[in-house]
Amino acid sequence: MKIIKKIIILTVFMTVASISSAQTLHSLYFLEGNNQRNLLNPAFTSESNGYVSFPLLGNFNVTANSNVGLGTFFYPRGNEMLTFMHPDISIDEAMSKFKSTNIIEADINMNIVTVGFNSWGGTNTIGLSVKSQTGAYVPKDLFAFLKEGQVASTTEYNIDNLNIQTQNYVELALGHARGINDKLSVGAKVKLLLGALYAKANVENMRIYMSDEQWRINGRGTLAGSKGLNFVYDEDGNISDFDFDNFGVAGYGLGLDLGAIYRITESATVSLAITDIGFISWKDCSLAENKNNEFVYDGFDNIGTEDNPDGSNDFDDAADEIWDNLKAMGEFSDGGKGGKTTSLYTTIRAAGEYGILNNKISFGLLASVRLGAPKVWSEGMLSANFRPTSWFNAAINGSVSNIRSSMGAVLNFHPKAVNFFIGADYLIAKFSKQFVPVNAAKFNVGMGLSFNF
User: Fold this and answer.
1) Of 135, 119, 101, 110, the residue nearest 53 (C-alpha)
2) Domains in the chain, please, with CATH?
3) Segment 402-412, tens digit of pLDDT
């Protein structure tokens, strides 16, 4: 059980830590003159002859992505804050807050340096960045088991695919965008990926059966960790701890971005992009598995509470045996070494834009779908874009997704020498005093600065 607690603590830490900088704002998609748009569609070109961005300044975002929040687990009652496990919180009220799969995610996309320049008939980009994708995916039946327990003569819970995972890597991207003719522009990026750290904890097909005659739990769990995450084993060969050291290149991978823009008329444009097509192959991962995959309790038989002549106690001995068997469900033993291959979180974006008043104002519709994770995220965003001068533009938008709906806005300043933006995709969210999301969290606040030459 100790190792399970450590995994949960590690995941919370990595998730909170990775909410320090994250994916590029979707609000930038229709902002002409912004140098970061090629991260969303590699066919976008720069209006300057070249530009350079620096660490943190080039692209800095704060993001959270979940379908649960503080209000899922805690309930105010008078001057007290009760957990969903408290008997004063009804089962129906508590379970209504949980989803079939409860998700907390955070992604990092931190720019180290990016250089763009016009040559060879188009715009070229060279970018170095650090990326991280961390998430916890917990089925509802686990919380139902904790809250409800046995509620009938027979009660059964099915806990499938409880996942906690993270992958972290360095990306070197080489991009080129160019116009094919007056109407069509295309772009592509090739990415070399260097894996830094990968870890995954998974509980597969756990079944909990409870009846008046017997309780039975069976299932299987696995752990995997790349170079840099080391499992520490006790004298019985079970994982008792883990530590971080001996970091280095833990894997290699390739990625690809593709994009196209088609100008139907001077005022109407459609575009399509597929980003982060690819994989990372992690070498020499440490593997572990739970082999004690069944616990059975069918009551105490012929056990007295008095001490035996030798000083032992039948009841204590039986209770200790039950606890040892139950504890073994959470122990992981050495599974050797092996390779793992993970996919990137591929995102598909399709958009249309129509301008009025000589394109001083335009309206855009962006549809996005993110693949490659236990949960597929989809979103539709309607944006109104304003270009009052050649050096300033802005956008306001509203979005609907399978997490929640929200609004966003962004300002973009792009005189000849610099390009600066600040904005947010999701402005509407309720937070506690500690700035923890109360309900489902989906927000992305960002800024960026680059210098033109």
Assistant:
1) 110
2) 2-293+329-452 (2.40.160)
3) 877 788 999 99
